[in-house]
């Protein structure tokens, strides 16, 4: 299969059929918008092994188990497909990503870095940090192309006082490497979320779909 399904028909359509292989997809947004749920669900619903690099403790086996069971999967089998890494700082994150070159093979269909910038954002010297970040993305891109797998790069936002708006962290460094960019937003109606296609290789930008978060994970409204 060429794309990885998100499990939501409207999200798949927005993304031109699902999450692309061989490229990096950035998913960003404020807290509790569903980034982790979406990334876990994509691993859950598609065949193949999953590398999940959890930098902020957002990955929850209990949540994944619940989502699997509610969708009629054997939770034990699903959890076995996930290989979890928990780097505690940016240096360790760099080591983990570098190690993937020796570990990942044809059996893998997805790599998630959730999030790529939580350790980055606490470091001081952004200039040398951007070089490091770029290198990490380069390794991920190399893996994506070599094994034709999908890579989801989760990112956070910060308040940019110049433009008076929320912006993705390390926007430019990530923007060069992530060809497809999805922004998630919360709405005032509880449970309902919004996904905006900010950039895509072959779909027009600005497309919007609604989704909700339930026991099953991400669902169409
Ligand atoms: N079983 C469930 N049913 C419905 N909603 C749930 C369930 N479990 C978690 N949620 C909701 O999912 C949201 C959190 O989603 P998720 O962790 O994917 O967000 P996130 O974007 O990764 O946030 P963060 O930036 O903090 O990591 C919360 O609003 C939470 O209430
Ligand atoms: Mg999260």
From TrEMBL:
GO-annotated biological processes: DNA recombination; DNA repair
Family matches, as InterPro entries: DNA_repair_and_recomb_RadB, P-loop_NTPase, Rad51_C, RecA_ATP-bd
Domain RecA family profile: 1-157
Pfam families: Rad51
A molecular function GO annotation: ATP binding
Keywords of the record: ATP-binding, DNA damage, DNA recombination, DNA-binding, Nucleotide-binding
Gene3D superfamilies: P-loop containing nucleotide triphosphate hydrolases
UniProt xrefs under PROSITE patterns: RECA_2 (PS50162)
Role of this protein: Involved in DNA repair and in homologous recombination. May regulate the cleavage reactions of the branch-structured DNA. Has a very weak ATPase activity that is not stimulated by DNA. Binds DNA but does not promote DNA strands exchange.
Family of this protein: Belongs to the eukaryotic RecA-like protein family. RadB subfamily.
Family matches, as NCBIfam families: recomb_radB
Record HAMAP family: RadB
Name assigned to this protein: DNA repair and recombination protein RadB
Origin species: Thermococcus paralvinellae
Name of encoding gene: radB
């Amino acid at each position: 299969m060429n794309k990885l399904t998100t499990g939501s028909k409207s999200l798949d359509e927005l993304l031109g059929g699902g999450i692309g292989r061989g490229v990096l997809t950035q998913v960003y947004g404020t807290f509790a918008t569903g980034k982790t749920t979406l990334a876990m669900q994509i691993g859950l619903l598609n065949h193949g092994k999953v590398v999940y690099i959890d930098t902020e403790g957002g990955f929850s086996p209990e949540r994944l188990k619940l989502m699997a069971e509610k969708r009629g999967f054997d939770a034990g089998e699903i959890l076995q497909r996930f290989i979890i890494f928990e780097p505690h700082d940016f240096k360790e994150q760099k080591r983990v990503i570098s190690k993937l070159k020796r570990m990942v093979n044809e059996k893998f269909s997805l790599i998630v870095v959730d999030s790529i910038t939580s350790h980055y954002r606490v470091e001081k010297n952004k200039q040398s940090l951007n070089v490091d970040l770029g290198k990490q993305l380069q390794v991920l891109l190399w893996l994506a192309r070599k094994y034709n797998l999908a890579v989801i790069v989760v990112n956070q936002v910060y308040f940019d006082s110049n433009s008076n708006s929320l912006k993705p962290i390390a926007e430019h460094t990530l923007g060069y490497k992530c060809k497809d960019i999805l922004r998630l937003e919360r709405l005032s109606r509880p449970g309902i979320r919004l996904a905006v296609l900010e950039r895509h290789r072959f779909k027009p930008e600005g497309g919007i779909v609604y989704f909700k978060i339930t026991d099953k994970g991400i669902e169409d409204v």
